[in-house]
Amino acid sequence: MVDELLFLSPHLPHRRIAHAGGRFSWAWLSALSACSRVHLVTPASLENASAPRDLPPCVRVTMLPVGPPPHRWAARLHDARAGGITPGIAVLEAFRSSPAFADAVASADLVEIHWQHLLPLANDVRGLRPGLPVTAFVHDVMTQMAQREARSARHFKTRIASTVRARRALVIEPRLLAEVDQIFTFTHKDRDLLRGMGVTRPVEVVDPNVQVPERPASGSERPVVAFTGAMSRSANAESIAWFLARVWPRVLSEMAGATLIVAGANPPQWLWQQRSSSVVVTGYVDDFDEIYRSASLFVAPLTLGAGIKFKVLDAMAYGLAVVATPIAADGIVEEAGSGCFAAITADSRQMAERIVFSLRHPDYRSAVGDRARSWVHSRFDFERSVSSALQIYQRLCSAPTGSTGPQAFRDRS
What span, in angstroms and rounded, lies between the C-alpha atoms of 352 and 350? Predict the structure, then answer.
């Protein structure tokens, strides 16, 4: 057994956190805290400081005060050099200057870094304790996200800046991941993507904490389309803006009685103003169960982002047919097959046509949803992933002193 696990995260995960990555981290820490003492160190951001403290009893939390940011030009230079893989220089300095962080490293048996934003701290951990095992949880491949942003940029200056950031990320992300002993990610596709970028560290694929409800959604008799996601995230907000402008009017022209439900925390003001008889904006929802059960179809019109989309897996687990963009289906369709989706398209006209077709043909929706639900049920096993991670932790901690770490790995290669 590993006595003390130290987790470094930019977010304080809790039961009511608004985004899927945070909910996974909460489930991950909950499972691991049943076997080991868990110490979570996180910056005292406004989001974290105001979050409810409903972590499991065995998880100890240390919040590090974050000082004022440096001069604007220094912060921008730091962010540009980091290729977008940074929480900001002020957050990194909060860790590096904190005696509490140094003490936490000194007492840990293993350090795990969640989200790539804190990957620069792996080198700091090495400086404090060279032989301490360090693992990293890659929620999204930041290089892929930056590359997609560069391709989708509409304005010349934005495209140039995004392209530079993507090129920097392609260099920096593998370099940062070379400082850890083990990488965890959610999909085989992300694992292969990292390897294609030159990452040589071992990568373990971890199953998301997808909960398959005992009873599938029966599907609304009315034409109700649902989308869920933390609306404070630009990928969700920009994608639903595109959908409302380019897709939804075409759907309404064919089905005047259709309703779109946009559920998720912190919608921007412009989205609140889109509310109408055909568009429902809920804001924060404590439990999406009612949303999924009130819908007849789920849409995931994501135009930005990277990594597996938990919202798509959740909808599939409920037996809902999903119309998605290729970005939203990324990492899922490769294993599930296109038959588990009602449609996968980035074309606004085709998306509208497939939504209308699916709404008009309940037997088709039901067949797609049944296939998707069956695949999710057979594919994902969160408890198995926790068990595998514990075995990896034990192996890393049991290795002879000096046999872990970047140099030791290179010597064995």
Answer: 5
